[in-house]
From TrEMBL:
This is YbaK/EbsC family protein. Keywords: Protein biosynthesis. Belongs to the PRORSD1 family. Residues 46-151 form the YbaK/aminoacyl-tRNA synthetase-associated domain. PANTHER family: PROLYL-TRNA SYNTHETASE ASSOCIATED DOMAIN-CONTAINING PROTEIN 1-RELATED, YBAK DOMAIN-CONTAINING PROTEIN. It comes from Lentilactobacillus raoultii.
Amino acid sequence: MLSLKIATEKEAIQLLNDLNIDYQRVDHPAIWTMNDPNAPKGLPEVKNLLLKQKKSEQFYLYLTDNAKVNFKHLANQLGIAHSRLTFASEAELEELLGVVSGVVTPLALMHDTEHKIQVLLNHRLKALPLISAHPNVNTATILLRWADLLKVLGRLGYRPVVIE
């Protein structure tokens, strides 16, 4: 069933405020990729990808630093064939999270009301002093701590899997 509810900045900020999370906000021109020339310098480099198994209803949100993703290694950790691991389509991004490509964020997970997404966190995120996430718009970045990311995910009903 299609949700078509668009994730909003207001609801992302409200979630952080409801959890009493101390965050920093950085406003900037719209950025669509990590290599976007508008991307502010000095922010933690993270990558947010919504992946899925081909022809399956299992979806994965994968957050990592800006390293290249090794799909074969990731598939091995998930116990699936790497040829079955693909990017979710724009329509699936909109249906599951209420966002478009370039705005994928853990703060949009509140739209995955059926919990179809398994959250995977790269172990390197723990070492970062701050983690960056869009507040459901790509004209701002929220900086928060690892513990606060886990707090957000817990409130939304997710038990993330930490991967290499």
